Amino acid sequence: MKSRTLVIGDIHGGLKALEQVIDRASINQDDHLIFLGDYVDGWSQSAQVIEFLIKLEQTHSCIFIKGNHDVWCEDWLNGERPDHTWLFHGGQATVESYQDLTDADRTIHLDFFERMKFYHIDAANRLFLHAGFTSINGVENELYQSDLTLDRSLWEVALKMDKSTKHDSSIYPKRMLLYHEIYIGHTPTLYYDTDVPMHGCNVWNMDTGAAFTGKLSVMDIETKEYWQSDLVYSLYPNERGRNRN
Fold first, then answer.
1. Which among 145, 184, 205, 238 has the fewest CB atoms less than 10 Å away?
2. Interval 74-132: pLDDT, tens
3. DSSP state of 136
4. Nearest alpha carbon to residue 239 among 216, 210, 217
5. pLDDT per residue over 174-185, tens digit each?
6. Residue 218: strand, helix, or coil
7. What SS3 state is found at 98?
8. What stretches of 65-163 adopt beta strand conformation (E)?
9. How far is 180 from 130, CA to CA, in rounded Å?
10. Does residue 150 form part of some domain?
11. Structure confidence at residue 2 (pLDDT)
């Protein structure tokens, strides 16, 4: 079987959704998996998602990108006082999911967070990161590392330019032309009234709203075929998920 490179959107504590898409995409050990961050905060199984991914890494080729929610969780696991903004935006559910884990387990999880990458560029010059970047000289030259986990301007510009350029890539903004394709999460496609992966210029947005009323998505970056979970809230009928992004 030919190996595939599969990109996975924001999970936000939805282990049941993650297990569904892995099954529906028939993911096997020949596939290369790139996760775009925000593994935690939202549904009740954040710690269990991390545990699952640590085990998955032992049997599959995986790259884990760090999202803004992962930064918050890492700081907390590292002994920092919980950030009130984090707790309000799904962190409380993450804290509760860690109640039954031992100190040794938490140390293993902290090591996992610390090993995550802020971005990945593959051999075909495709960029993978959680949110976006602002430097016209590329992610390596981004002044503030936090932009890689928080920036929305890349996606906003991609959508705007996609409508106005008639797909003439020669006039895309310079920062987009640096890469063949760019894959992001962070900004739910629900904001644009859809729960499937979106495409603007050469940017693909894989956050299909798993934290809210959407689904978790996995996509083959070569064929653009994608697979999705059920609506994640239907898998956690007694929970509210995240109230805000």
1. 238
2. 999 999 998 889 999 999 999 999 999 999 999 999 999 999 999 999 999 999 999 99
3. T
4. 210
5. 899 999 999 999
6. strand
7. coil
8. 119-121, 126-129
9. 17
10. yes
11. 83
Q: What does pLDDT average to over the chain?
A: 94
Cβ partners under 8 Å of residue 220, min gap 6: 4, 5, 6, 25, 226
- Provide the pLDDT for residue 167: 62
In angstroms, the CA 50 to CA 7 distance is 17
DSSP string, 140-186: GG-S-TTHHHH--HHHHHHHHHHHHSTT-GGGS-HHHHTSSEEEE-S
The answer to the question of residue 242 being in a domain is no
Cα(169)–Cα(146) distance, integer angstroms: 28
Q: What is the model's pLDDT at position 83?
A: 84
- Examine residue 96 and state whether it is found in any structural domain, yes or no: yes
Work out the average pLDDT over 34-56: 98
Position 240 in a domain: no
Segments forming the whole domain that contains residue 101: 5-235
d(CA 90, CA 44): 9
Contact 182, 122 (CB under 8 A): no
Q: Identify the burial level of 183 via C-beta atoms within 10 angstroms of its C-beta, where 0-12 means exposed, 13-18 middle and 19 or more buried.
A: buried
- Count CA atoms closer than 13 A to 150's CA, side-chain side: 7
Determine the 3-state secondary structure of 32 from DSSP.
strand
**Token couple for 34:** 């790139």
